[in-house]
Amino acid sequence: MAMARTRASSPQAIRVLQALAADPARWRYGYDLATEVHLKSGSLYPILIRLADRELLETSWEPGPPGRPPRHLYRLTPTGREYVATLDVALAERSVPRRRLGLSGA
Predict the structure, then answer these.
(1) Domain-located, residue 19
(2) Helix (H) / strand (E) containing 72
(3) 21: pLDDT confidence band, cut at 50, 70 and 90?
(4) In which element (H, E) is residue 33 found?
(5) In contact, 76 and 56? CB cutoff 8 Å
(6) In this predicted model, what pLDDT tens digit does every residue of 75-86 receive, in sequence order?
(7) Considering the domain boundaries, does residue 68 fall inside one?
(8) What is the 3-state secondary structure (H, E, C) of 48-91?
(9) What is the domain range of residue 42?
């Protein structure tokens, strides 16, 4: 049995996750996410598929208006919400400037 690969999320995937985390219970269309996070569909949809495969997103289909195809919707799973919370902590820790401790006498 093959082991699932886990790798660090790309900056683009992090932007998508953070956009979804702004209102985690709300279903979002891919087009709206693409506009918000400034990604083209060729970049966004593979990210959404990978996040769904990692069970960080749940997906649903919404019937389209007459003559239009159904639309795919996305939102964070509880696991996705936890993951974003750990990302936010990790990103905050990296952005905190670290003071150098000197051994100078006062």
Answers:
(1) yes
(2) strand 71-76
(3) very high
(4) helix 30-37
(5) yes
(6) 999 999 999 998
(7) yes
(8) HHHHHHCCCEEEEEECCCCCCCCEEEEEECHHHHHHHHHHHHHH
(9) 11-89
